[in-house]
């Protein structure tokens, strides 16, 4: 119903050399929506999110974010992006990391302070800000990376496998954070190959061999495929397209 999607991907295709990695992708993300990109390793999820941000240029088709064709520097500043690998300075404390990135985002001293307090609270790191990142667990590092992606109060948050290597309890708390952000109107794109995580998304794009093989709410995907679980549904939709 929403006429102004936050993200609109139109007929997007991309090849590396002769190898097609994304083929004719069409999708939209609405305000306050959590869209999951589910697919096996190598399916093209990272390439797709990079194309959305403007870090990969499409061979054909286009992407617009907040109504503007990407890449666009002003729009990039409104996107929070967390890549697969944590880009943290291990010798610095978490607070120093946050201050560094807040300066990069161009936040004033006062804004920096406020945003760091707010975002650290969201990811449950307020009590650990003075520890060097070298002493952080894997889960704490992921949460710190999410915190950094949130610093500039993005309208669109893109997270590439945010909970890899994180135990179920922490994963749950991170998903609660996503829910809170969603409630406040943030749109979230999250890549995953974990089925239980996929089920938490509002809508799910199942990606295989660079194509969207199905896109709908998790419930609808299961109902439409006449299966019981997300895993079975994924196999159902993926099973029919592998002819070569
Ligand atoms: N810069 C590049 N040059 C050449 N091939 C690339 C490049 N980046 C990605 N690829 C290839 O494109 C395909 C899709 O990669 P991509 O990283 O988008 O997959 P993915 O679904 O995110 O996988 P994963 O879950 O392992 O991160 C892979 O076969 C990968 O090897």
From TrEMBL:
Residues covered by the ABC transporter domain: 7-234
InterPro entries attached to this UniProt entry: AAA+_ATPase (IPR003593), ABC_transporter-like_ATP-bd (IPR003439), ABC_transporter-like_CS (IPR017871), P-loop_NTPase (IPR027417)
GO molecular function: ATP binding; ATP hydrolysis activity
Pfam families: ABC_tran
Lineage start: Bacteria, Bacillati, Bacillota, Bacilli, Bacillales
Protein name stated in the entry: ABC transporter ATP-binding protein
Gene3D superfamilies, per database record: P-loop containing nucleotide triphosphate hydrolases
SUPFAM superfamilies, per database record: P-loop containing nucleoside triphosphate hydrolases
Keywords, in A-Z order: ATP-binding, Nucleotide-binding
Entry annotated with the keyword ATP-binding: yes
